[in-house]
Amino acid sequence: MKQIGMYDLAILKSWLPPMAELIELPKANYAPAVLSADLDGDNTVELVVVYRYQGELYVMILKKHYNTWYPIANMKGNGYSITDLLAAPIMNRKMNSLIIGWQIDGICSELDILQWTSNGFQHILPRGIHFSRLEIEDMPGVHGRDGIGEIALWVHDREKGFRIDVYRWSCGGLDFAKDAYPYYLKKVKDDYEPILKSMIAHFPDNGFRFLETVLHWDGNPFVPSKQSPAVADEELHRGNLLGTGRYNIDLSNVQKMYSETVKDVQLEKAFAKMYGLQKGVDKIRYYYNRIDLDGDGAPEVFVYLVGPLVCGTGGCSAAIFKTVGEDYQLISEFTLVRNPIIISDHKTNGFHDIIMYVSGGGIKPFYAKMKYTNKSYPLNPSIQPRVKSGTKVNGIAIIADDILTNQGVQF
User: Fold this and answer.
1) How many contiguous H segments (helices) and E segments (strands) does the chain have?
2) Is the pLDDT of residue 244 over 90?
């Protein structure tokens, strides 16, 4: 990431709509919210500007072709200002992501990460991940630094001070960077001890109970929470599967279907090729059901994968295959999936709608409706429409197993 000069700033201003206002960054002495960084991995920098136009916030990204700059993205933001604007490798060490903190109130911002893809820049996080302070650094873990940035989010709690979580990108979402906690906690102690003497910071458990005896200020320890948010939400989801649940969604007419127990070698070959898995090396277990999604009389196969390579705090990976002769043909793939998966009686474009439970990664849990469009289902349930409060769902909940007690089929 490079400093913006007057020439580049003039170029950015020339592309703004008439009467648009440049946003200023309070953390940078109210300098304009602009930066220069390589965001698409081609070793040439792009220019970024955040501005306000007709009461709305926008982020614009410019690219240079020969001697001409032109916009390759102009995306609407959130909130009324920004607190953070930086570039860092979050998903790929060879490509920077654009990280923005959209300010939504006096002490809270919403995290947004824009990533270059084959379809242009995309938001890779769901809405609703809030923080009070953000730090990004390639933090050393078990095997040292890997060239990819971890994200430390400080969340203000009016009663308890701050909760601090450290995340890294894993399997399509943010997951707790458990091996980076010792490094970051020491940094917090060294850098912020004068501030933290007056607060209690809360960390997720995840095996770090030793923190209670490692870090103390005047008798106030870092106190890890009793269980990670992902575990708590998972248990809640299973408990409210049938009947009217916490989110006022009536699931009393949803029948449960448990996963099959017979190993399917061809299915294993299909998802192993898809995810680059090696049998005997990668520790994966899977759950699957056969169910006719398009009403043609030939059931599709929905497979749900569980393991460190395919799961994150927001859920695990899944896929739908269609049988073609003795092989399997991919129809759709999913990230951030939690079981059970509800196959609704309602159809869109001839395929049953799918309802998935979304939680983890700092967002408020909800049920998402996945509709079949453009020859597939959506990839990420966390950015799909929510099932409306008061909805009565009819259908079948597949892979309705308790995966904490049922180990599924070993890959």
Assistant:
1) 5, 31
2) no
